[in-house]
Design brief:
The protein has 389 residues and is an alpha/beta fold. The protein has 17 helices and 17 strands. A hairpin with a 2-residue loop joins strand 12 and strand 13.
């Protein structure tokens, strides 16, 4: 178990479109929540399910990007997400990071998600000194009107200030998150967002089409505008891909682009369906066919930490072999390099595979199946056809 995710649910305000577990305010519980995270990390029953993480390894560093962690032991990636982890402030983050450092192998990738408004020069310097070597900034849009439509708070200028602070602190791996198909967004709006984002020269982009939960208040409020912008989704997506590829970013996953060597190793582990451990309220863990999730209840999580009653706040599920192969296929085809066909052969509809190969949506290169550029723009439809009923 070489990959660790830690969920911080606190946000300054909750965006109406967001489907991740988070809650506005309640930062008075930040200290207690970090206490609970540290207790879960240390709990032998929890890490026992993950073949107990070794606790006396070298401190995290930078450099190697190979996947030899399974041979050397220790965490290869740590991802602290949310919510807004940086809303906790550096003191609490440092408590967490100091407990994680001994569990990491040399060269581990350690990512912290950040809202630009929370990134000060002091915070950036503290994160760097604590071993964090990758930051993911939630920009979403540089357009004030569209940010308001998303419910994003804080001035747009904070994005540039955050990037300046991170560079001054020595960060050489910063990602920007952008969204498209935002209510009332035009193609010109998107093109301007990309211009402003590229001017900051991040190493990585995550660009997602806005998806809204059915029946949510956000959907009801913006229903007409969402319907109008939905028709532009394919054109917006092609604009994102063309613009970022022309700027030298590699389209290595359906929604992710990176400078060479700056791909997010933690997310690659998810897409390659590696085992991972998740800590915190709402966090998922996965090992082989087994999955478990902590309930989306911050108070129950904090209260469960004192007696170590983790099973009382956890749900379990076991996948079938068929479900596992289907997931491997769908996740693998999200990647530019595809997946070993032999690994997922049982899940393939051979007749559809041949049709997709003949029509230029799919390739078989050296035993790996992957989507062509044409296929990547309609990946969901290709996967739906390719998976055996």
């Amino acid at each position: 178990m070489n990959h660790l995710y830690i969920h911080i649910p606190f946000c300054a305000s909750r965006c109406g479109y967001c489907d991740f577990f988070s809650q506005a305010g309640n930062l008075s519980r930040g200290e207690a929540y970090v206490d609970a995270l540290l207790a879960e990390l240390d709990d032998s029953a929890v890490v026992g399910q993950a073949e107990r993480l070794p606790g006396e390894l070298a401190s995290c560093g930078t450099g190697s990007t190979d996947d030899s962690s399974s041979a050397t032991g220790g965490l290869d990636t740590v991802y602290i997400g949310g919510g807004t982890p940086t809303l906790l402030g550096f003191r609490l983050l440092e408590r967490l990071l100091s407990a994680l450092r001994p569990l990491c192998r040399e060269g581990a990738e350690i990512t912290v998600e950040a809202n630009p408004t929370t990134v000060t020069p002091e915070l950036a310097a503290g994160l760097a000194e604590s071993g964090v070597n990758r930051v993911s900034l939630g920009a979403q849009s540089f357009n004030r009107r569209l940010r308001k439509n998303l419910g994003r708070t804080g001035p747009v200028e904070a994005i540039g200030r955050a990037m300046t602070a991170l560079r001054a602190a020595g960060f050489e791996n910063v990602g920007l998150d952008l969204m498209f198909s935002i209510p009332e967004q035009t193609l010109a709006d998107l093109e301007q967002d990309l211009i402003e984002a590229l001017a900051l020269e991040p190493e990585h982009f995550s660009c997602y089409e806005l998806t809204v939960k059915n029946g949510s208040d956000y959907q009801r409020r913006w229903q007409r505008q969402l319907e109008e912008v939905a028709g532009n989704g394919p054109r917006f997506y092609e604009t994102v891909v063309d613009t970022l590829e022309d700027a030298g970013y590699r389209w290595y996953e359906t929604s992710n682009f990176a400078r060479p060597g700056k791909e997010c190793r933690h997310n690659l582990a998810y897409w390659q369906r590696a085992d991972f451990l998740g800590l915190g309220a709402g966090a998922w863990s996965s090992q082989g066919l087994n999955r478990w999730r902590n309930l989306e209840d911050t108070e129950a999580y904090i209260e469960g930490a004192a007696p170590g009653d983790w099973e009382g706040i956890r749900e379990h599920e076991r996948l079938t072999r068929s479900q596992q192969l289907t997931e491997l296929l769908m996740l693998g085809l999200r990647l530019k390099n595809g997946i070993d066909r032999q690994v997922v052969a049982e899940a393939l509809d051979g007749e559809q595979e041949n049709i997709l190969l003949r029509n230029g949506f799919l390739l078989n290169e050296g035993g790996r199946i992957l989507l062509t550029r044409r296929g990547r723009f309609v990946a969901n439809e290709v996967c739906a056809r390719l998976i055996k009923d």
